[in-house]
Amino acid sequence: xxxxxxxxxxxxxxxxxxxxxxxxxxxxxxxxxxxxxxxxxxxxxxxxxxxxxxxxxxxxxxxxxxxxxxxxxxxxxxxxxxxxx
Length: 85
Fold this sequence. Notes:
This protein has helices at 9-12, 52-56, 61-64, 68-82. The protein is an all-alpha fold. The chain has one domain. The longest helix has 15 residues, at 68-82.
């Protein structure tokens, strides 16, 4: 499965604890990454500065669902499940 153009759910919904260029403390869940373009592309894609967690994400039906809205819901639920109480 390929990423859907413009979806960017993984660049917005999930938290990232590692530093990102322009976000030295990482990013909280629900906040768009500063490296995300207006058309939903990553400015760091394929570059060494891209955080390992981002490079390790791969589009899949389990994570992305059948539509952007479903991806947002799935990732929000996964984010809740992975956060400490």
